[in-house]
Amino acid sequence: MGSLITSESGEEITGVASGAVFLDFVAGTITLPAGSSGNLVRNMTKSLNDLGLNQCHSIGVWCSDADAIYQIGTAVSLADHQLTHVICNYGFSNVRIEIPDNSTPDASNQIFFMASTDGWLGYSFPRISHQRGISPATGNDTTTDSFAVYLSKHVGAYNQFLITTENTDGSNSLDVSIEYSEDGDNWFVDAGYTTPIAVASGSYNSFASEVEHHFYRVLTRATSSGNQATFKIHYNFVNDRGSAFL
Questions:
Q1: Cα angle 59-67-57, degrees, rounded to a multiple of 5
Q2: How far is Cα 165 from Cα 153, in angstroms, rounded to an integer?
Q3: What is the mean pLDDT of residues 53-71?
Q4: Residues paired with residue 149 on neighbouring β-strands, in sequence order
Q5: pTM, rounded to two decimals
Q6: CA distances from 66 to 22, 25, 219 (A)
Q7: CB 3.0-4.6 Å disulfide test: which of 10, 22, 135, 228 passes with 31?
Q8: pLDDT above 60 (res 244)
């Protein structure tokens, strides 16, 4: 049985910006793109150097954006619109995950991986997954007098989308609208928001849909011009149907 290698804490890595994530199994380091939250260079649980080896031979990797492109070593590149990938019986020492610029805010992507020095991963890598978070990650956003986008996500490969806009202001109301797109360029107002929904101070608006559009975004504005409100957006995109194994 080979050794398993993952992030030092064993937790998924959040707050990842668009760009290239580098997994260097020889050095045992994870390098995140500029603009990501926290330390850009992080340790794995162990390195191939620690083990006196020069290659891993299997890996499971998940990225919250199904448009991400994976390069395993130098020979395998995957762009097949899945969230989860498992590759066995293939030698490599590094992995590159190219995350596209699909998210607002940008540094809201997530990744998780488990690699093994054995040809069989030996870990039941999850097929069911979800991406959840709060925008902004700390503090609150503030409305303007015109609609502006505060959350926009590529949700291809997920099959349920849960979004709650929480008005955290002490007195002012805000308007919320939710739109969808199939290409990330042409946007359409969701049927429940053809008239913007007013959210009173201290209240919230919850959106739940199983219509599998490819992109969703949330827009807000002040209900009354000049009377801005603070707010947070809670989101959870669920994939409970799994992904193919390779």
A1: 10
A2: 15
A3: 96
A4: 219
A5: 0.93
A6: 17, 23, 23
A7: 22
A8: no
